[in-house]
UniProtKB/TrEMBL annotation:
Start and end residues of each Double zinc ribbon domain: 10-42
PANTHER family to which the protein is assigned, alphabetical: DNA UTILIZATION PROTEIN YHGH
Protein name: ComF family protein
InterPro entries: ComF/GntX_DNA_util-trans (IPR051910), DZR_2 (IPR044005), PRTase-like (IPR029057), PRTase_dom (IPR000836)
Family: Belongs to the ComF/GntX family.
Span of domain Phosphoribosyltransferase: 140-229
C-alpha cells in the first residue's frame, strides 16, 4: 500500500501530465493518456500492401526500401506536433521510448520483427549532439528495439558535416543539403544486415533516402525505414 500512497502523494505535488495533451495522467497511465492513445492518428501503413502504402511509393525510383513505416501522421497544431516538440526541444526522450515500444510491439505482432537485424537511428552531427545533449531518434530506436526485440546501434552511421536546418528548404535543396553528409562508421556491423533505419519525422524523405543509399552502398542487405511521424507532401 505504501508505495502506491507515496506515488499518489508525489503526483499531488508534481502532477504528471500527458505528453500529448498536457492533461493530468490517471493512475496506471504511462506518459500518454488513454484518450490520446486511442485518438492518435495512426498510419497503419504496415497493414497495407506495398503498392497501396503512400510512404513506400515516395521512395520508388529513388532507393529500394523493404518496409516504409511511420507510426503517426504528422498534423500541425495537434497532439503529434506537441509530442515531437516535447521530444526534440524539451528533452522528453520518454516520448520516443514509449512510442517506439508501442510501435515495435505492434510491428512484432504483425510479424515484421524477423525482417530486421539491426535498428539504426539517423545520426546528428557531433556538434549538434553536444549542443542538444541527445539525439531525438535514439530514444525511438531504443523503444523500437524493446518492442521488436531487435538490437539497435547509435554508432553504425555517422554525420560528417554540419548541415543547415532543412526546415525552409524545398525537396531539391533538402536533397543537396544531405546527399553527401552521411557515412557508415562501422561497415562490419551492417554488411549483410537488414537494417531498420529510424528518424523522428519524415517530411520530404531526403535524409532517410541519403542514409539508405549509404547503407546499401556499404553492403547492407536491405533497408527498411520507420519514423514516429510523417508529413503529407
Ligand atoms: Zn493526453
Amino acid at each position: 500500500m505504501l508505495p502506491a500512497l507515496f506515488a499518489d502523494f508525489v503526483s499531488l505535488i508534481f502532477p504528471r501530465t500527458c505528453l500529448a495533451c498536457i492533461e493530468p495522467l490517471g493512475r496506471g497511465e504511462d506518459h500518454i493518456c488513454t484518450a490520446c492513445r486511442a485518438q492518435l492518428p495512426y498510419t497503419d501503413y504496415h497493414k497495407l500492401p506495398e503498392k497501396d502504402n503512400p510512404l513506400a511509393r515516395r521512395f520508388w525510383g529513388k532507393v529500394p526500401v523493404r518496409h516504409a513505416l511511420s507510426y503517426l501522421r504528422f498534423l500541425r497544431h495537434g497532439r503529434v506536433q506537441h509530442l515531437l516538440h516535447e521530444l526534440k526541444y524539451q528533452g522528453q526522450q520518454d516520448v520516443g521510448r514509449v512510442l517506439g515500444r508501442w510501435y515495435g510491439t505492434e510491428l512484432a505482432t504483425a510479424g515484421l520483427a524477423p525482417d530486421f537485424d539491426l535498428i539504426v537511428p539517423v545520426p546528428l552531427h557531433r556538434r549538434k549532439l553536444a549542443k542538444r545533449g541527445f539525439n531525438q531518434s535514439d530514444s525511438f530506436a531504443e523503444g523500437l528495439s524493446l518492442g521488436l526485440e531487435v538490437p539497435w546501434s547509435a554508432h553504425a552511421l555517422r554525420r560528417t558535416e554540419h548541415t543547415d536546418s532543412q526546415t525552409r528548404k524545398n525537396r531539391t535543396e533538402r536533397w543537396l543539403n544531405v546527399a553527401t553528409v552521411f557515412e557508415v562508421a562501422k561497415p562490419a556491423a551492417i554488411i549483410g544486415q537488414r537494417v531498420l533505419l529510424v528518424d523522428d519525422v519524415l517530411t520530404t524523405g531526403a535524409t532517410l533516402e541519403a542514409c539508405a543509399a549509404v547503407l546499401l552502398a556499404a553492403g547492407c542487405r536491405e533497408v527498411s525505414i520507420a519514423t514516429i511521424a510523417c508529413a503529407d507532401r
